[in-house]
Amino acid sequence: MLDKLEYLIALAREQHFGRAAETCGVTQPTLSAGIKQLEETLGVLLVQRGSRFIGLTPEGQRTLDWARRIVGDARAMREEIKALRQGLTGQLRIAAIPTTLAMVAALTTPFRARHPDVRFTILSRTSIEILNALENLQIDAGLTYLDNEPLGRVSAVPLYHERYQLLTASDAPLGDRITVTWAEVATVPLCLLTPDMQNRRIIDGLLRAAGGELQPTLESNSMIALFAHVRTGRWASVMPAQLAETLGLTTTIRAIPIVEPEAMHTIGLVVPMREPMTPLTAALVAEARRLAVRMAEKP
Amino acid sequence: MLDKLEYLIALAREQHFGRAAETCGVTQPTLSAGIKQLEETLGVLLVQRGSRFIGLTPEGQRTLDWARRIVGDARAMREEIKALRQGLTGQLRIAAIPTTLAMVAALTTPFRARHPDVRFTILSRTSIEILNALENLQIDAGLTYLDNEPLGRVSAVPLYHERYQLLTASDAPLGDRITVTWAEVATVPLCLLTPDMQNRRIIDGLLRAAGGELQPTLESNSMIALFAHVRTGRWASVMPAQLAETLGLTTTIRAIPIVEPEAMHTIGLVVPMREPMTPLTAALVAEARRLAVRMAEKP
DNA sequence: ATACAACGATTGAAAATTTCTATCAACAAT
DNA sequence: ATTGTTGATAGAAATTTTCAATCGTTGTAT
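C-alpha cells for the assembled complex are given below, as produced in the milestone run.
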C-alpha cells in the first residue's frame, strides 16, 4: 500500500508512467499495476486515461494529497527512529534560489559542526521548483522568498532581508556613485537572471516602476555566469548585498546600493509542514533560527 | 508496512501476541514475524521480550505514536474517497459514558435523517476506556466529560452541562422536597455507578465536600439497573437531569434538583484530532455543533 | 521435584503476491 | 502508410506472506 502511494506521487510528478516507474526503481508494468490496484482498493479512477497520461481525476488529486502526507509521515517515522538509535545521520536535500546559494554555507557550516554525520545535497532551483519539490518529498528544505508569492503547505523561518546593489566596474557609467536609483540602473547594459527566477521578476517590477525601459542584454540562470560577465567591465548586474559580498569585490568591481525605493524582500528557510518534523528538518530549522538571530544582530 | 503498523497497534492494545493476532485476523506466528520485520526495517527493538510480552521499548512507544497516525490517515483516506464516490456510508462507532447514553439518540437521530446510509454502533464505556479506544482507532467518537480529567490528542465539541438530581420515590424520605442539598442526599440509601465511572467519582467528591459519609448500598455499571432499583421505591439515586427526563418519571418517582452547590459538568463529543477529519467524523461533529446550539436555546 | 499450562519463537511447506520480460494495441507525428 | 511513443496485458519467475505444527522457556499448581 505504501509503495503504491509512492507510485502515485511519482506519477503525478512525472506525468508519465515510464518515467515515474524509473524514479521508483521498478518497471513500467509494475507501476501500472500498482496504480490500478490502488484504484481498485479505493473503488475510483485516479488517473484520466486516454491513449496516454492525461492527468489525475479529482479523486486522484485528493488521494495524492493523502499519499504525500502518509508517505511523508512514514519516512519521518523511519528517520526519527534511526535518529534515536544513532543520532542525526543521513542526507539533507536543500534547494535554494540562485541569489541565496552563497548563504547556504552560513546554514550548513554551523549545522555540520553540530552534526558531523549529516551529508548535504544543495540544488539550485527556481522558487516554484522548490515548492513543487517540497510537495513531492524530493527535497527536505528550501531557501527562497517568503513574502512575494504564495507558499502553500510549508513552515517558514525568516532569515534575512535581501537588499539590492548595482554590481559594476568602477570605470563604467555610474561606477563612481555612492548610491544609484532604479531609474538610473535601467539605463546601463544589464545582465540578469532568466525570467523564470523570482529575483528577476522582482527586479523587472522595480525597474518598470521606476519608469525604466527593460532590456537586459544578457540572461542566465547562473549567478556565476552573471558575475563573470560583470568582471569583464562591460556589463553591470543587480545582486543582493549578501551575495555580492560573498563573491568578493575587487578594486575594479564595485557594489553600489540602489535606492528610490530601497527595496527589500524576505528570504527564509521553508520546510514541509509536518508535526512533528523529521529530526533532520527540526535540527535544520533550529540552525536557521540561530542564523536569523546572528544576521539580525550584524546586518 | 501498513499492516505491520496495525499489528503494532493491536499488540500495544492487547499486550499479548496471541490476542493481538486474533483481532488482526491473522495467526500468532504471522504477527510475531510482522513485528520482527518492523524491528528489522527500523533497526531497533520495539518490544521488550522476556518469556512473555513485557511492554514496548521507548522506541516502540514512539513508533506506536507514528503508527496510530499513519494507519489513521490511511483509513481516513479510504473513507474520504469512498464518500466522494457514494456519499456518506459506513459505520460510526460511538462510545458513551452511561449517563450520556440517552443523549446519543439526540445526536444519531438527526444525523441519520441527513445521512440514511450510515450505520451506528453505540458502546457503553468508561471515560478512560473511551480515550483509549479513540487512541487505538477502535471507535470514531466518544461522549464524555470535557472538563474534569485530561483528554489527550482529541478534538472536543461541548454539548451541554450535566446538572444533578436526586431520583427517588415520592413517599420516601426527601421525596416531597422541591430541592435537596448534597448533605441531605448523603443521608439516604443510594445506588450509584461503580467507581471506575467518572460520574461516580464526581458525585463522591460532591458528597464528601458536603460532609456526607459515603456508603452507597448498591453499585452498578448500568444506569438501567440503577433506575430499576429506584423504581422499587427502596433506593434513591443521583442522575443528570437530561437522563432522568429520558428514563421517564412516573407519579411515584420524582427527580429533585440538588443544590449547595449546584454542580455542573460539561459533556461533549470527542473525536480523534486529525486534519482533515474523516468525512463521517466531520459530519458527526457538524451534527454535534447543531445539537449544542439547540440545547443551549432550550436547556 | 514434577507435571502442566501459557506464551512467543521457529520451521517448513503451501499459497498468494509481486515483479519482470516480452508483446500488444492505441494513438500521434511525419 | 510508417514509425515512434505510451500504457495495458499475458505469462513466467521470484519473492513474500501465511499458516499449521512444533519447540523452548517460564511460571504455576500439585
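Chain B is about 45% helix and 25% strand. Residues 115 and 268 of chain B are 21 Å apart (CA to CA). Further analysis is deferred to the final report.
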